[in-house]
Amino acid sequence: MILSDKTIIRMLEEKTLLIEPVEKAQIQPASVDIRLGNTFSVVEDSPSGIITMQNAIRYKTIQAEKYLLLPGQFVLATTQEYFVMPDNLTAFVEGRSSLGRMGLFIQNAGWVDPGFEGEITLELFNANRCAIELQSGRRVGQLVFAQLDEKALNPYKGKYQGQTGATGSRVFMDKETR
User: Fold this and answer.
1) Any known ligand binding at 4?
2) With left for phi above 0 and alpha for psi between -120 and 50, is residue 72 left, alpha or beta?
3) C-alpha dihedral sign at 97, 99, 102, 107
4) Would you say 96 is a known binding-site residue?
5) Which domain of life is it from (predicted)?
6) How do residues 111-132 score in pLDDT, each as one tens digit?
């Protein structure tokens, strides 16, 4: 079941769902707008020109109020908001249609697990032929919340728990593929 604005407001008031900072205007009929933070990370060039899943990837991270995303460029960014999800709630990250129509693709694997806590790292890609100026504080997407039928047996406690800033891939920490 997708949560309505009434339920989201009630959960925020009861502090069963935490979003900091959040303004009333961000709460939409069935979602909460997310805003772009001021941290951006780009993959540093590797000497071999190859990124592997077995080794840590090096990133250059900057803090800025504006970031110029060049055509065909990929950058990690973060939300301005910090989330604490209860064990019986999940969320889908959706980009804004108006930004998609500019050629800005926004993703984060699209999913926020029950029990997750932290800022959400966004993967941004400029599919346009022109540069796109990104500005901290601008609405870039929305979270759509869905209620689980019961609390998760194993809520999220993974390698991105508590993340802040544009957090790079930690795929090299996966145990199942080593």
Assistant:
1) no
2) left
3) negative
4) yes
5) Bacteria
6) 899 999 999 999 999 999 999 9
Query: Is residue 178 one of the residues assigned to a domain?
Result: no
- Is residue 159 annotated as involved in ligand binding? yes
3 state SS of 10:
helix
Going from the C-alpha of 74 to that of each of 68, 90, 104, 111, 122, the distances in angstroms are: 11, 26, 10, 19, 10
- Rounded Cα distance, 36 and 165, in Å: 11
Q: Is residue 99, in this structure, part of any structural domain at all? A: yes
Measured torsion, CA atoms of residues 93, 172, 82, 124, in degrees rounded to the nearest 10: -50
Evaluate if residue 177 carries a pLDDT over 50: no
Give the contacts of 120 (CB within 8 A, at least 6 positions apart): 34, 78, 79, 81, 83, 93, 108, 112, 143
**Number of folded domains that form the chain:** 1
133: domain CATH number? 2.70.40.10
- Catalytic, 117? Answer no
98 known member of a binding site: yes
The active-site residue, picked from 117, 123, 150, 176, is: 123
Angle (CA) 131 101 5, round 5°: 120
Q: Is 177 a domain residue?
A: no
Token pair belonging to 148: 């689980």
What is the pTM (predicted TM-score) of this model? 0.90
Q: Which residue blocks in the chain are alpha helix, DSSP H?
A: 5-14, 97-100
Segment 66-96, tens digit of pLDDT: 999 999 999 999 999 999 999 999 999 999 9
